[in-house]
Amino acid sequence: MAVKKSDLYSSLWASCNELRGGMDSTQYKDYVLFMLFIKYVSDKYANSDDMEPPIVIPEGASFDDMVALTGNPEIGDLINTQVIQPLVEANERLARTDFPDFNDPNKLGDGSEKEKRISNLIAIFNSPDLDFAQNRADHDDILGDAYEYLMRHFATESGKSKGQFYTPSEVSRIIAKVIGISPQNSVAGTTAYDPTCGSGSLLLKVAAEAGKRITLEGQEKDVTTAGLARMNMILHDFPTANILPGNTLTSPKFLENERLRTYDYVVANPPFSDKSWSNGFSYDEDGAVADIHNRFVWGAPPKKQGDYAYLLHIIRSMNSTGKAVCVLPHGVLFRGNAEGPLREALVRSGYLKAIIGLPANLFYGTTIPACLVVLDKENAAARRGIFMIDASKGSRKDGPKNRLREQDIHRIVDTFRKGETATGYARMVPFDEIMDERNAFNLNLARYIDTSEPEDIHDIDAHLNGGIPARDVDALQPWWDVMPGLRNELFDDLRPGYLAMKLPAEAVKDAIRADAEFGRFAASAGEVFTAWRERTDATCRSFAAGDNPKELIEDISEDLLEAFRDVPMLNHYDVYQHLMDYWAEALQDDTYLIAAVGWVDGVQPREIVKRKGKSGKMEWPEPGDYMLGKRRFTSDLVPARLMVARYFAAQQAAIDELDAHITELEQDLAEQIEEGWGEDGLLSEVIEGEGDKQKIVAKALNARMEAIGDDPDFADELAALEAYKKGMNALAQTKKQRKAAQDKLWKLIHAKYGKLSADEVKELVVADKWLATVEGRVFGEVQRVAQTLASRVQTLAERYATPLPRLEEELEALSARVAGHLKAMSAAWN
To answer: Domain DNA methylase adenine-specific: where (predicted)?
Structure first.
């Protein structure tokens, strides 16, 4: 039975994290990622029939050979000498520095501690769920996604120390899309380069966007991180990518005839404001940098501010038609001194095509906002301005960092590709405006795009004389365009420029939802969704084992985005986000499961076991599964509740009736306790506990009844005790019936899973689960239109509900009442 991708990754991370002990995550990641690497290359290439496999696995140097070493006191040294060293010697693209030292006592401990830690780490990866023999990197991304999952978590934990080795995947995706590479303009000789490649994620995203084999080259200053990048390339099926260690600025490795090699596409996320970039350079008496590669002909970047040094290296590395995108801190757009002339030269060159401002706190290792600088040499001479996008407000909080949502990524890319003006978001800024005396080549986005929210101004006249300002109501014109009659239903003319509410403020929401025009709007949106649902239903049912889940979500999500693009009042990106959120929550896992094993096998339940919760106590993983005796089962593809709704509604209705009866009996017993406690209460002798924890146990009840016997003096108490006992017995009998009914239903469910046909599974998954969930969320978006309008109208109504003269009258009346009370108490108020 295939395991869910999300469960696999989270359990992998949890297990690895649990084993690391006190080791810093920047060090521990090297061991974890090496394990993932050796497991992958062993599964894929150890027994390969390929005459020239991209990676050679020498005999005795596979993951299975590492498994055989578990329990050996010399395991660390043996991994170094019998696995890693032969692997490096057999593959010229690998270096010993790529891999960690498994015999390092400072990191892994000594003796039995080291042996146990390494053995346990190997055991984590020696799982049947981690079988990469059939992995297809362009299709089944389980390995690449696992690597990225671990990298994100390591970057999060690394904080400011080493988080720069990983560029958030959302930013990498934007860069890959705006740089302009595609299957249509990529050929066998297409080249891409990253001068500060970190773990290589940017290069891989560009390669994925190209859709075919291209030449990838990258340089990384940190030797260990360069090793991570090489492993990352192999894990993503790009074993021929050339990643070299070294300082790109002082010792660039990619040269042709001693000159910098140039590329079709260059991407980079260099270290922000590198204060040591100039180490190794010399300067002449005029302050010019001595550089044999002529990167600083526009001028010398500040010695303690390396952003333009990297940018100038990138420009020099672009060929005559080259495209580039670089991540830089916002300061490069407006800082003065030495950077001023460099920025002016950049603008005048025509290379600068666009600037995309990103939210703050996106990147690991810093909280400052950054921007994407988009360069294009091919069309420099014809360029007449710079396209600017301020996307700084589009993100969501994700732990300690902000994170771009799918809708934020899509909006940035759409806006960039179309070059359209969007108020408060994007516009083409002509060179004349940038170069004029007021701006003087300052590229700060705030100068050109106003992202501020309009101020909600109070109206003094309305506060003094009552009424709602007509201008505030006019500002809601987008709603009145869709529902023109609704305005007249809500407002009456009061005096010139001011309106009166026809309804109480609390009745506005219901009035909007009951309005016929709103109903027509909702119905129109529903028709758009229904049409999309019919298309998507057919697309999803045709999905089969071996198909590509990412192609499926791209097809149906793009269709949804386009379907709602022209629906008034609804933001089509918000609608799109609902689908993409559900993809992340469940749809992705479901489709990967189907792609792996098919519909029928994917629906089959699996037994689950208890696990420790946050409290440390043993808890069940999730509610809503089902049990056979003491064994608990779940179906990842079709939860039991969906089986009940479609096939066993009558049985569930009978259980619901028993639940209702149980609630009635429990309430009746609680009322008897409430009436019977206290000093003179008829049940006081048998009630235990205090307050909400009061209860009566059967043993105490029976003992009291036996003690009373037939004594007529206790007849009333006996009757109360008997009534309570009767209720207890009825409750126990009903609970017994309920358990029997539930056990029977669970057996029916379990048996039904094994009899489901492929068409039945598709009905349950596609109709009852996927599309029903998305429909609920999209129609929630429709209802939010009414909620937004109602909230604004209620705010206006409440703001101006009581004019100043009436407030003064109320104040006088209240003051008079207070004075009267004080006088009655013979008190004085000055």
So the answer is: 140-455
- Give the pair of three-digit tokens for residue 421: 């003006």
Q: Where are the beta strands (DSSP E) in 410-540?
A: 426-430, 468-469, 491-495, 498-501
Last residue of a domain, one of 557, 574, 599: 599
Out of 549, 579, 599, pick the residue that ends a domain.
599
How far are the Cα atoms of 501, 506, 797 from residue 807, in angstroms, in the given order?
19, 21, 16
Specify whether 374 is located in the same domain as 476: no
The dihedral sign for the CA sequence 584, 586, 591, 596: positive
What is the number of structural domains in the chain? Answer: 5
Q: Which residue has the higher pLDDT, 110 or 415?
A: 415
Q: How many CB atoms lie within 10 A of CB 436?
A: 11
The answer to the question of residue 765 being in a domain is no
| pLDDT confidence bin for 2, thresholds 50/70/90 | low
The verdict on residue 771 lying in a domain is no
Domain check: are 343 and 487 in the same one?
no
Q: How far apart are CA 90 and CA 95, in angstroms?
A: 10
Residue 188 shares a structural domain with residue 326: yes
Q: Are 311 and 326 in contact (CB under 8 A)?
A: yes
Instruction: Calculate the alpha carbon distances from 786 to 479, 490, 516, 517, 789 in Å.
Output: 9, 13, 13, 11, 5
Grade residue 374 by pLDDT with cuts at 50, 70 and 90.
very high
Lowest mean pLDDT among 428-442, 533-547, 687-701: 687-701
The torsion of the CA quartet 363, 368, 374, 380, rounded to 10 degrees, works out to -160
Residues 504 and 544 in one domain: yes
- Please report which helix (H) or strand (E) contains residue 510, including its range: helix 508-514
Q: What DSSP designation does 352 have? A: E
> Pairing relation of β-strands 191-194 and 215-220?
parallel
Distance CA 484, CA 515 (A): 11
Residue 369: count of CB within 10 angstroms of its CB: 18
User: Tokens 């209860």 sit at which residue?
Assistant: 695
Give the 3-state secondary structure of 780-806: HHHHHHHHHHHHHHHHHHHHCCCCHHH
- Reported as a single tens digit per residue, the pLDDT across 560-606 is 999 999 999 999 999 999 999 999 999 998 998 999 899 999 999 98
The amino acid sitting at 589 is D
Kindly state the tokens that stand for 759.
């068409």
pLDDT tens for residues 414-428?
999 999 999 999 999
Cβ-based neighbours of 384, under 8 Å, separated by 6 or more: 430, 431
Report yes or no on 165 lying in a domain: no
> Regarding beta strands 215-220 and 242-245, do their DSSP bridges make them parallel or antiparallel, or are they unpaired?
parallel
Do 467 and 460 form a contact (C-beta atoms < 8 A)? no
Which residues pair with residue 413 across a beta bridge? Answer: none
Cα end-to-end distance, the chain, whole Å: 84
Per DSSP, what are the bridge partners of residue 194? Answer: 218
Segments forming the whole domain that contains residue 51? 1-158
Asked if residue 265 belongs to a domain, the reply is: yes
Q: What is the pLDDT, as a whole number, of residue 752? A: 97
385 phi, psi to nearest 5 deg = -175, 180
Express as a percent the part of the chain with pLDDT over 70.
89
Residue 328: φ, ψ to 5°: -140, 155
The answer to whether 473 and 502 have CB atoms below 8 angstroms apart is no
Residue 418 shares a structural domain with residue 444? yes
Amino acid code (one letter) for 818: V
> Mean pLDDT score of the chain, rounded to an integer?
88
Residue appearing with tokens 């106590």:
617
Least Cα distance to 224 among 38, 29, 64, 418 occurs for 29
Do residues 15 and 117 lie in contact, with contact meaning Cβ atoms separated by under 8 Å? no
Distances (CA, A) of 255 to 251, 271, 317, 444, 597: 10, 22, 10, 35, 48
Helices of type H across 376-506: 406-418, 431-435, 460-465, 470-474, 477-482, 486-490
* Residues 184, 119 share a domain: no
Q: Based on the fold, state whether residues 556 and 617 are members of the same structural domain.
A: no
Contact predicate 594/638, CB 8 Å: no
- CA 255 to chain CA centroid, Å, is 40
